Amino acid sequence: MGGLLQDFRYAVRGLVRSPGFTIVALLTLALGIGATTTIFSVVEGVLLRSLPFPSSDRLVDIKEVQEQYRKPGRIGGGTTDLSSYQRWSTADRAFDATAVYSATSRILRVRGPATRVVAWSVSAGFFPLLGARPALGRSFAAAEDQPGSAPVVVLSHVFWADRMGADSGVLRKTLTLDTTAYTIVGIMPAGFQYPADGDVWANLGALLSGPQGQARARHPGFWILARLRSGVDAAAAQAQLDVISRRAWTTDLGARSWLPVVTPLRDYLTGQVRAPLLIMLGAVALVLLIACANVASLVLGRALAHQRQVAMRTALGAGRRRLVQGALVEGAVLAAGGGGLGLLATAWCTPLLVRLAGPDLPRASDISLDGRVLVTCLGASALAAILTAVLPAWHAARLPPGEVLKSGGPERTVTGRGRLGGALLVGQLALTTVLLAGAALLARSFAGLTRVDPGFDPRHLLAADVDLPGVQYQRAAQRVEYVRRAEEALGAVPGVVTTAAGTGIPLAPGALSVTDHRGPDGTSRPVLMFIAAVTPDYFRALGIPLLRGRALEADDPNAVVIDAAVADEYFPGEDPIGKPITIYGNVTRTVVGVVGNVRQEMLPIPAPMHAYEPYGSEPVSHIHFLVVTRGAPALAAGAVRRALQAVDPDVPVDRVRPMTALMSASLAKQRLYAVLLGSFAVIALALSAVGVYGLASYGVSDRTREFGIRIALGADPHSLLRLVLGRAIVLGGLGLVIGLAAALAATKILRGLLYGVGPGDPASLAGAAALLLGATVAASFLPARRATRVDPMVALRAE
Q1: Which pTM does this prediction carry?
Q2: Which of 43, 274, 550, 572 lies at 20 to 30 Å from 490 by C-alpha?
Q3: In this structure, how many other beta carbons lie within 10 angstroms of the beta carbon of residue 9?
Q4: 3-class SS at 582?
């Protein structure tokens, strides 16, 4: 222990005496360790941490999908109707418990304009299945699942604190949602929030009451949770549900061809981000290796510069074990300092990363600097300590003190420094090439996405969403009248050019219909079609081109406008105008026009088929208003909101946002991964450039006498410049060749994140190669220029 303490004091004194070296080494390690810990904190919170429910590994989500679309390993599917839940809940050999829940948006008006809350109607088994108990009051009783039961509600802790002032006396008071008074029976604890957007939970029986509730039960809008029996996995449970589902095909025509998809709940919540996050974790691990190699090269150069001092210690009796121990202690001191700075960087960067990811990152609230993250930081620091100290320790162990002392000084050490430092540098450059290639691919992919034609013009376009309350707007005529008055009010807003409305707009959820289509060969197959009910100026507001026929009119009950994708599918080689087409599976309309295709789900996804009918034909309650402005649309957002609130103060305006914001949100995932990998590549390139500069500088310093002699003998300064640059280019070329070979294999894992480019895209690889070689030449130019300015008299006199 005494020896360790002495080595610790010696290492600290040595680092303090070399502030330039120490600062560079600490910052380099802080970059590598901080970046690694930041990404791991996200991976740990999203992918590794258990869900906050007892025995969460046995919780599964159950969705429904048509048989031909169910693929092994595929996550997700569609929500179900209540009859599917009732059938599947009988699978007592598969599940200990099941629960069903359905989302409804409700209107709450306390003071001022009406606001909307997200209410989840849940069965009585929902909270027990998740192992949750109210902090105050009770949850739901089994009798409250039955239609006609009294409406009761359980509040989330956030809603209770924000809207009720954390008043513990709210139990048994009423809360009016829409026009129904719900009795408050419970308050959930602060740690419980599922689903994540829920404000309140209402009993299932209140949702199913009355004619509307009966219709709702037949609508596929229910989520299903289940807890697996011990010893039963998701695949076995799905097989049991398959038997139940196929049995129902013979008695329920609506259930025919629909099968369940049973997915572990954690996989269902995080499945879309698992592969990209693991790719980012692998990329940042390369950054850590580059940082460690960089610092190892610096430490090695410093050790070689002080090898006479080490040789003297050896000659005076210091054993190899003690020398190795000293090198490891110095590496540990550097790694500890770098780890501490890296942890501070993690605390600052993680919230920024979560904000950059936005709503596309599930379980964002679970991301924190917990024990696992701290252990990972310590592990990264320990790895850094070993990797940075192993070469200096190895050098100290094999140092021949007699030869060093005979040499009279530390000069002529470039051979050892060059071989080891060159090998480290080639490794850094190879890893950097892999990161640069991946970053270039994602950058080109993202740039391609920003140039995708969405099929509409988002400039000067504002979208406002409302959802009409069912009680006040039960009849279709009432909803049509509201839309008419709202368009008039919006048209009167200063700076507004055009207004329109529709039940669906691009890049936002819309009605999706599955229709059987009989092709030219006579075979029938299901096709997916987005259907929107729109007002006459809808296409003009969005700038969707009319290709054939005419647009819709207000009094056009049997007309439909289709896009080019539908025309190609249903009427190949024909003029579709005036021909009948079936939508929703059983509604026949006459085609009056054909418009251009538009992107619907996300910009990376090709345009699906669309059909448009007059709003009066299908006046549903959820409406998107489109407002074209003369100036910047964001400036008109407040006036648009006020105009809609003035039409009916009891109808909340949910969102008002420019269409460009929808386009930006559509690319959030691609932007996140491009920024992350690009940041890692920039860090790696900067670290590699520092390594190139350091190696070239040591080379010039160690060869000062040689350069002086060359200049004294008449060497051209340009030849010395080529000599230094040539070695850097050779090392850079070797690292580039190795890196490109690795990149061709490694970038294949990015295939799922790419759009319009392949993993072996020549332009991306060429750009990465040019950037690496350019940085190599630039980093070695200053040392090379210094070599041309060596004063031969000074160099020879020093010798």
Answers
A1: 0.82
A2: 550
A3: 11
A4: strand
Together in a domain, 478 and 557: yes
Confidence of residue 410 (pLDDT cuts 50, 70, 90): very low
Q: What is the mean pLDDT of the chain?
A: 85
Distances in Å between the alpha carbon of 286 and those of 35, 280, 434, 617, 685?
10, 10, 9, 58, 12
- Whether the Cβ atoms of residue 228 and residue 95 lie closer than 8 Å to each other: yes
Q: Is the dihedral of CA 442, 445, 450, 454 positive or negative?
A: negative
- 103-117, 289-303, 388-402: least confident range: 388-402
Q: What is the mean pLDDT of residues 56-81?
A: 85
Residue 65's φ and ψ, nearest 5 degrees, are -150, 155
H helix runs in 47-89, sequence order: 82-88
Asked, for residue 144, whether it belongs to a domain, the answer is yes
Last residue of a domain, one of 605, 625, 650: 650
Burial (CB count <10 Å: 0-12, 13-18, 19+), residue 680: buried
Note down the domain range covering 596.
469-650
Out of 650, 684, 711, a domain closes at: 650
Where is 294: in which H helix or E strand?
helix 265-305
Is 613 found in the same domain as 517?
Answer: yes
Alpha carbon 762 to chain centroid, angstroms: 27
319/323 Cα distance (integer angstroms): 6
Under 8 Å CB-to-CB from 417, ≥6 apart: which residues? 300, 301, 304, 695, 698, 699, 702
End-to-end Cα separation, the chain, in angstroms: 42
User: Quick count: other Cβ atoms within 10 Å of Cβ 210?
Assistant: 12
Residue from 462, 779, 494, 486 nearest 637 by CA? 462
Mean pLDDT of 277-299: 87
Quick one: CA torsion of 423, 424, 425, 428, rounded to 10 degrees? 130
Is residue 250 packed enough to be buried (19+ CB in 10 Å), middle (13-18) or exposed (0-12)? exposed
Backbone angles phi, psi at 84, to 5 degrees: -65, -45
The answer on 252 and 141 residing in a single domain is no
**One domain for residues 644 and 715:** no
Query: What letter represents residue 708's amino acid?
Result: G
Per-residue pLDDT tens digits for 138-156: 999 999 999 989 999 999 9
What's the total number of domains in the chain? 4
pLDDT at 411: 44
Q: Look at residue 30 and tell me if it is in a domain.
A: yes
Distances (CA, A) of 208 to 64, 150, 219, 527, 629: 21, 11, 11, 31, 43
Q: Cα 267 to the chain's mean position, in Å? A: 15
Q: What are the residues whose beta carbons fall under 8 Å from the beta carbon of 322, sequence distance 6 or more? A: 3, 7
415, HSE (Cβ side, Cα atoms, 13 Å): 1
Helix (H), strand (E) at residue 756: none
Mean pLDDT of 718-738: 86
pLDDT value of residue 330: 79
User: Residues 662-676: pLDDT tens digits?
Assistant: 888 888 888 889 999
pLDDT exceeds cutoff 70 at 163: yes
- pLDDT over 50 at 415, yes or no: no
Looking at the DSSP assignment, which residues form a beta bridge with residue 609?
Answer: 529
Q: Give CA separation, 733 vs 137, 230, 724, 738, in Å.
A: 71, 58, 14, 9
| Domain identity same for 476 and 506 | yes
Q: 495 and 428, same structural domain?
A: no
Nearest Cα to 517, choosing from 506, 525, 508? 525
- pLDDT tens profile 784-796: 877 777 666 655 6
Q: Are 680 and 353 in contact (CB under 8 A)?
A: no
What residue type is assigned to position 394 of the chain?
W
Question: In whole angstroms, what is the distance from residue 311 CA to residue 65 CA?
Answer: 74
Reported as a pLDDT band with limits 50, 70 and 90, residue 413 is very low
Q: Is residue 717 domain-shared with residue 568, that is, in the same domain?
A: no
Are 630 and 501 contained in the same domain?
Answer: yes
Within-domain flag for 321: yes
Domain membership flag for residue 66: no
Cα separation, 514 vs 526, in Å, equals 6
